[in-house]
Amino acid sequence: AQSVTQLDSHVSVSEGTPVLLRCNYSSSYSPSLFWYVQHPNKGLQLLLKYTSAATLVKGINGFEAEFKKSETSFHLTKPSAHMSDAAEYFCVVIQNTGFQKLVFGTGTRLLVSP
Amino acid sequence: DTGVSQNPRHKITKRGQNVTFRCDPISEHNRLYWYRQTLGQGPEFLTYFQNEAQLEKSRLLSDRFSAERPKGSFSTLEIQRTEQGDSAMYLCASSLEQVAYGYTFGSGTRLTVV
Asked: Are A2 and A93 in contact (CB under 8 A)?
């Protein structure tokens, strides 16, 4: 079965510095992967998705992620953090056992300090 | 159509009471999902509808939980004889047939059982 592992439960950065949120996946074939963001007391919002097209995927709010098959990784990056980026980020994979459904990682909380 | 709508946003109930949540999906989405999210965890799949048919239920969905989607439009999730362990955020999402496009999530219903 497909799964994802988020390597850090918390990441702290200063405003204006780069962001790196790490995600490794496990899949027997080329997976479909997503990053979702959840701001406090808000719903989940799709940041970006990878569906076997270009390996570098650009999303909203300046985020991007690179699919690396050799490393089974799909890390999320942003060149310069803003205070408004502080939120919980989830790496997600489509699981195909039974029917297709999204399976979430445990999440990474991004803290941004002034 | 402004997205997936969930009501109520918050629900506080006494242990042993029954509660019902409602989800109104995006009108052209034929797939509807319920997820549960506890503190510090990623959302976990509960159940899935394609139109009015409930096609899969997670082992997390005990006999006290029931979900319906009459006429393939809105859905309800009922929890009978609530327990403190049911306290969580209940998320609804909808999607088109192609799951690779991702889900659109509602803002969730936060349940607190006291």
From this structure: yes
State the nearest Cα–Cα gap between B4 and chain A, in angstroms. Answer: 10
pLDDT tens profile B27-82: 989 999 999 999 888 999 999 999 999 998 998 888 999 999 998 899 999 999 99
With an 8 Å Cβ cutoff, is A114 touching chain B? no
- Find, in chain B, the residue whose alpha carbon is nearest to that of A43: B107
Residue B8, preceding peptide bond in cis (omega within 30° of 0): yes
Nearest to A99 among B4, B42, B56 (CB): B56
Q: Which of B58, B90, B99 to mutate to test the interface with A (most CBs of A within 10 A)?
A: B99
The DSSP annotation for B63-99 comes to TTEEEE-GGGS-EEEEESS--GGG-EEEEEEEE-S-G
In this complex, the residue of A44, A101, A107 whose CB is nearest that of residue B105 is A44
**Which tokens sit at A50?**
């990878």
pLDDT of residue A28: 78
pLDDT-derived band at B98, boundaries 50, 70, 90 = confident
Q: pLDDT value at position A57? A: 94
Is the pLDDT at A100 greater than 60? The verdict is yes
Cβ-nearest to B55 among A49, A99, A102? A99
DSSP per-residue codes, A1-55: --EEEES-SEEEEETTS-EEE-EEEE-SSPPPEEEEEE-TTS-EEEEEEE-SS-S
Nearest CA of chain A to the CA of B100: how many Å?
7
